[in-house]
Amino acid sequence: MLFLIPAYLSEETPLKDFAPSIAEVIMGTDYFFVENEKTARKVIKFFAPEKKQSQLKFYVLDKYSETCDLKEAQVLMKKGQDFGLLSEAGLPCIADPGNIMVAWAHRNQIKVVPMNGPSSIILALISSGFNGQRFTFHGYLPIDKSEKRKQLLHLESSMQKTGYSQIFMETPYRNNQLLEDLIKTLNEKTLLSVAANINHPDKEFIKTQSIREWRKTELNLHKIPAIFVLGK
């Protein structure tokens, strides 16, 4: 089986907030697809501190990976070895490259088992007050300023015309620049929701207000994981 294992959004989130089955699955296998080995070891230690790290076998599955890069793991799975697929944060395969192994598993009659856990994208949406029945997730916006401006105006226009909530994110060290671009580019009546440090017991910040109000708000998002949502 291929278990899709959630990771925490914040290291400070209490362990009791997660299903015990996560630790059970981690204890039950030593084989994992991971985006980053260092992060994966921290997540595994968080859920199952008694797990012997020396027994772990990692197969890197990042944005550069292709199915053919993981032949050794595929042979093991066909022989009956269970694997876990672990995201950097939240649920695997959402803003995460793990889907290529899930697709391979379906093609090769390997059972896929999704596990309950947090998704910063969904948590940001449901806490925004915006339309949760029609929405689009765009991932990361262009880095180039002119291209980013075009994209922001397009998202604003799409939201106004269709009513679809528009969800996107940025690399944490560029969050402040994105927020500044949003404030400068969008109509002052447009509503923006910012959800940062989701699931942190003390530092979680979630706020929805107009661009006009954001212009009066002091907020430092530098190196803080955040999700941005435009909506009605």
Query: Class by helix and strand content?
Result: alpha/beta
- Percent in strands: 15-25%
Q: Count of DSSP E strands?
A: 10
Form type: elongated
What's the CATH topology label of the largest domain? Cobalt-precorrin-4 Transmethylase, domain 1
Helix and strand string, N-terminal first? EHEHEHEHEHEHEHEEHE
Low-confidence stretches: none
Write the CATH architecture name of the largest domain.
3-Layer(aba) Sandwich
Distance, first to last CA: 41 Å
Report the sheet with the most strands, covering strand number, pairing sense and barrel closure.
Answer: 5 strands, parallel
Helix content: 25-40%
* CA-atom Rg in angstroms: 19 Å
Summarize model confidence as the mean pLDDT.
Answer: 95
Strand order of the largest sheet: 3-2-4-1-5
Total domain units:
2
Describe the structure.
There is one protein chain. By secondary structure, this protein is of the alpha/beta class. It folds into 2 domains: 2-114, Tetrapyrrole methylase, N-terminal domain (Cobalt-precorrin-4 Transmethylase, domain 1, 3-Layer(aba) Sandwich); 120-231, Methyltransferase, Cobalt-precorrin-4 Transmethylase, Domain 2, CATH 3.30.950. It is built from 8 helices and 10 strands. It has a 5-stranded parallel sheet with strand order 3-2-4-1-5. Strands 6-7-10-8-9 form a 5-stranded mixed sheet, sandwiched between helices. Strand 2, helix 2 (37-47) and strand 3 form a beta-alpha-beta unit.
Nutshell version of this structure?
The protein has two domains: 2-114, Cobalt-precorrin-4 Transmethylase, domain 1, CATH 3.40.1010; 120-231, Methyltransferase, Cobalt-precorrin-4 Transmethylase, Domain 2 (2-Layer Sandwich), CATH 3.30.950.10. Helix content is 33%, strand content 21%.
